């Protein structure tokens, strides 16, 4: 896949409402590896692995003005619930978006869950965010609420889980069924099919998902980095990351046809210019890392010493780096804090759209 094919934005049609993602055919992708079962768990043959994401938390936004309020702040359309079947609860739906500052840089990445409030004929939303910035996000929302009829509050009753197939072949054997209720929401991850499902529940994940087991959180983050999916403020530093360079369009997280929102001008201008020269790429270290690891923000260099970009964040021998798309093919390295030169390789994920082959 030529790196030049990535210099333009997402393919036509990618800017539509993210909540419609699950209606489209799932793009091809492969899992990074089969997830290990810690301690010789007898559920090693389970179809699904459930990962409890203590680093993610939920805010609840509801009230008559909740929808227009959020529309003015988010990069994407809202995941509005569809009509409910007779006697059944309204279906949940999910979307992905960023909150931006006035300069157009990312503040917070969120997964939104649209829910029909039974007590009111309006929609309510759960916002999944990095737990370390829950208070900051709540203050950000309060800043723009003014006199709108909106309530924003933490929602600790539900915990966030990721559900991934234990192996590339396993998910076809026992498909999951989307569900929504007061105690359980199970829905496809709106960013990419490679990230499986999102589960919000009061219970333990393996108790809710049949033929599943508790997964090691290390495996979840390894898989996420190998697939090039940023998540949280470590991967998307507030006020630093640019949404399109962070592949927001690839992850169905921006609409270029919706109304105005905070920070829209730079994002829209970059999209319509049609060229995104730098992107957040998955990288793998080819040499042993020094004991101190690699510092976020470390410069990535070519063999001749030319700057290609900066390392953003990672775990073990994998991570993310913001790199010039035209320069990722040759040998790359980082000079670690102890003076060691560590070789690395950047890759283009299978699930990214391409303009041409």
UniProtKB/TrEMBL annotation:
GO terms for biological process: heme biosynthetic process; iron-sulfur cluster assembly. Residues 277-353 form the CAF17 C-terminal domain. SUPFAM superfamilies: Folate-binding domain (SSF103025). Gene3D superfamilies: Probable tRNA modification gtpase trme, domain 1 (3.30.1360.120). GO terms for cellular component: mitochondrial matrix. It holds the Pfam family Beta-barrel_CAF17_C. Keywords: Heme biosynthesis, Mitochondrion, Transit peptide. It is found in: Mitochondrion. It comes from the Eukaryota. Its main location: mitochondrion. The keyword Transit peptide applies. The keyword Repeat does not apply. Mitochondrial protein involved in the maturation of mitochondrial [4Fe-4S]-proteins in the late stage of the iron-sulfur cluster assembly pathway. Operates in cooperation with ISCA2 in the maturation of [4Fe-4S] proteins. NCBIfam families: ygfZ_signature. Belongs to the GcvT family. CAF17/IBA57 subfamily. This is Iron-sulfur cluster assembly factor IBA57, mitochondrial. It comes from Rhinopithecus bieti (Black snub-nosed monkey). The gene is IBA57.
